[in-house]
Write a structure and sequence with these properties.
Elements lengths: L2 H13 L3 H8 L3 H17 L3 E7 L4 E6 L1 H6 L4 H7 L5 E7 L2 E9 L8 E8 L1 H50 L1 H30 L8 E2 H13 L6 E7 L5 E2 L3 H18 L4 E7 L6 E8 L6 H4 L19 H11 L3 E4 L8 E7 L4
Parallel strand pairs: 7-9
Antiparallel strand pairs: 1-2, 1-5, 3-4, 4-5, 6-8, 9-10, 10-12, 11-12
Helix pairs in contact: 6-7, 6-9, 7-9, 8-9, 9-11
Length: 360
């Protein structure tokens, strides 16, 4: 290894945050320094991550160093290199030959600004596949949370259809006025059943919205209507809003999934005897705020630290999966949004959702 190799490697070590190793090596003999650098080179060469140093020249970006994994992952890195010529740093997934590669590119701290970049590439194909499978499973969990209530409500709608149909057969000749009233009730119940089924199908199919986004207030109103039919009469959902409409970067299905998880949590927190309020704020700074507040006992400071973790739950065994808030957070993060808890016990739980606006 010549002197230039040693210098290049020291630059890489600084950029990668290995300053402690380098500072320790500076106090050693030249042979010790070369030995440590050789070990680091071997570790980089055999790393399962793609690692490279990229150098800016006057009109192009070239690869100054690349380990074998980087070369294997990126047989044709020209498109991404062209993109990196225009921006100082980049992080994101890039499809490549049937795989998904996650690129992280940042300026090397030991070089003049913009001259040297450090790139790390990971194969996240299997990870993304698992994430998609988990998202599907979470959808099934959300559907399961309301399936029992839907079945009960559908059964209530079918009772008058069955009973009054039997009564109508008897009254067809002798009591025409009573027959007319019975048929009206049958029709209303049948339409209500069909509406409930359509709402469930729309939710289950995960239909994507086409166009400039989803109108949030209307989507919330429809989601609440769907949930209300499954809730006990001792629990209420209220919707208020500062604006009559707001376009957001969510599908109607995602809105329903978010509302379902938050309302089910509030239902359990209030022991099915309380209310939850959803308030849509005025759009600002490219986002719309939705505040979801219940009148339950609230969440302790200790539990608040873990409340968003998957499978963490404060509910008794058998009454919750611990996925509700994790599902909501995941949905919002994928759409560049966020959720945070803003209160602690005993004030009731209050969550603030920030959703990206798609308004012009």
């Amino acid at each position: 290894m010549d002197t230039r190799d040693v210098v290049d490697l020291q630059v890489f070590m600084l950029a990668a945050g290995a300053t402690g190793l380098l500072l320790g090596a500076l106090g050693s003999t030249r042979m010790e320094l070369l030995g440590r650098n050789a070990n680091l080179v071997r570790a980089i060469e055999e790393a399962p991550l793609g690692i490279a140093l990229l150098e800016h020249h006057s009109d192009r970006l070239s690869v100054a160093f690349a380990n074998p994994t980087f070369l294997r992952f990126t047989p044709d890195a020209v498109p991404i290199l062209l993109r990196l010529q225009q921006i100082p740093e980049f992080e994101g997934d890039v499809p490549s030959s049937g795989r998904t590669l996650h690129w992280t590119v940042k300026p090397a701290s030991a070089s003049p600004p913009g001259e040297t970049l450090i790139a790390i590439v990971r194969d996240v194909t299997e990870q993304r596949r698992r994430e998609h499978a988990e998202q599907h499973q979470r959808r099934m969990v959300a559907i399961g949370e309301i399936a029992g209530g839907m079945a009960h409500e559908l059964n209530n709608l079918l009772h008058p259809i069955i009973n009054l149909s039997q009564q109508a057969r008897k009254d067809a000749v002798t009591k025409p006025e009573r027959l007319s009233k019975a048929l009206s009730i049958i029709e209303d119940s049948a339409r209500g059943s069909a509406r409930l089924v359509r709402q469930v199908l729309s939710f289950a199919r995960n239909e994507e919205e086409i166009g400039g986004g989803t109108e949030l207030v209307a989507a919330l109103r429809d989601s609440i209507a769907l949930l209300t039919s499954t809730l006990p009469p001792t629990f209420a959902i209220m919707l208020t809003h500062d604006v009559p409409a707001a376009l957001v970067n969510l599908t109607r299905t995602e809105v329903t999934q978010i509302v379902t998880n938050l309302v089910v949590n509030a239902l359990d927190a209030t022991d099915q005897r309380g209310h939850v309020t959803l308030h849509v704020g005025q759009p600002a700074n490219g986002s719309v705020t939705v505040t979801v507040k219940d009148d339950g006992p609230g969440i302790s400071a200790e539990d608040a630290e873990r409340i968003m973790e998957p499978f963490f739950t404060t509910k008794p065994h058998g009454r919750g999966t611990g996925l509700g808030l994790a599902v909501v957070r995941d949905l919002l993060l994928r759409r560049n949004g966020s959720i945070k808890l803003t209160t602690q016990a005993p004030q009731g739980a209050c969550f603030v959702l920030s959703i990206q606006s798609t308004a012009e």
